[in-house]
Amino acid sequence: MDTMVKDKAITKELDVENIRNEFPILSVTVHGKPLVYFDNAASSQKPLFVIKAISTYYETVNSNVHRGVHHLSSLATDQFETARKTIATHLNANPDEIIYTRGTTEAINLVAFSYGEVFIKEGDEIIISQMEHHSNIVPWQMLCQRKKAVLKYIPITDSGELKMDEYKKLLSAKTKLVAVTHVSNSLGTINPVEEIIALAHAKNVPVLLDGAQAVPHIKVDVKKLDVDFYCFSGHKVYGPTGIGILFGKTKWLKEMVPYQGGGEMIKEVKLEASTYQEPPLRFEAGTPNIEGSIVLATAIDYMNNLGIDAIAKHEHKLLDYATEKLRAIEGLKIVGQAKYKAPVVAFNIEGLHPYDIGVILDQLGIAVRTGHHCTQPIMDLYCIPGTVRTSFSFYNTIAEIDTLVEGVKKAIKMLKK
Ligand code: PLP
Could you say which architecture CATH assigns to the domain 51-304? Predict the structure, then answer.
């Protein structure tokens, strides 16, 4: 296994103990035990830097954007648009290619509708994969039903990697879009996105990457990737819920129809018909999540201050350690053993249901996720009811993994009695 740390020898070490002090929730107790939070792939915890930015916004800035002539409104607009620039810089995009959404799910739905309305017709094909989150399956199923288009799936191997030879075979003159996850939320697999994009572009096919599980762990450069659409969620990168980002290349955004109608996205409204703003505002109908947008940029600043490479180095250490320790437990099988992985270790224990293990771990203060993790097709493919998924962040420690391993052993003993 490997992550994307460029030079492990020179990347700085994180001061994890001090970092933990910046996350108040990490000191709570659960059922009388210190919290061990290993559900980071579902949602990350927030540092004081982010929490305080939310109250600062409401204490000193709160107002609507793009509308008022008064001081607070221009302050809010200024911070809202500055945040867009910060996020654009983080992804190496232009600010007018950055659309605020409610999250990854809404970003994908936006592309499925707004790109789909213009570019997809009967008989066209869209390629996704068998390892997608439901958020990157259902919008395409809905689009294909609406347009009588065909959805094709890249199959995956037993270890949880995309079968790239099959992908090559699926690409054809009928393909109008490829939409795959950058990192799998249930398996941890980091997909070979550069190759996926190069192969699609060789056939003039645009690519959307679901970056919900990548942006928390990997430096993403949309220009270098040459990706057409990229999306992620604020709450997984130490920011608020209800805010996310869609990056889209201007050449596509300019052609796409609005996703929703209403305020902010119009140029002129007449009783007969209306005209629309240029992107990105064309896709931001109604009062946006102003506080969320501003504080998402704060969260990104926080991550950049720690350093993405330093984050990845620490998380890689946790991933390796957890993989080794968990694998040594008798009857435990890791689900998702790709060569390149983000810090996710999902597993099952012979003869036990993942839910029962999750409940016992919770009693021990350890937060893990159990179930299908919104990737039911993976579970069907592997003929399992679900998994126990542990997912790590830069604020987790080796000692916490030891607690997890002891907890799993205890759960086995109790359940196999
Ligand atoms: N895609 C992936 C890979 C995810 O892991 C998730 C959330 O877990 C989503 C999409 C959906 O994100 P959200 O619920 O924030 O829209």
Answer: 3-Layer(aba) Sandwich (3.40)
